[in-house]
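Entry type: protein chain
Record version: 2
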Amino acid sequence: MTEPDVAGLQRRLAEFAASREWQPYHTPKNLAAALSVEAAELLEIFQWSTPDEADRVMDDPERAHRVEDEVADVLAYLLQFCGVLGVDPLAALAAKIDRNELRFPVGRPPGRSKDATENGHDHSSE
């Protein structure tokens, strides 16, 4: 059995949706909303957990299964969103990492970008 790849998973998701005639509902707005909902469901697993409990979430088989299911849902909607808009998710991530390596050089305090320290503003959330 071969390892899944992004393009293959996107193809499977598109075929799954097409066979059920779901494409009219898979608009960028709807997929972004669904992605947000699934990310919130992932966060819900950790709601009210202490940092130590959160670190051990995968030790409980039931919670581990929930985490894996929500990760799958988040990734599925993200891949469908990228497919609809023609975004290469791996290329987008690689480009973002490149930009972040320039913005946040090694040795700079966390949360402080190069731009922020030069201009007196903190843009770390951008």
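Comment: The chain has six helices and no strands.
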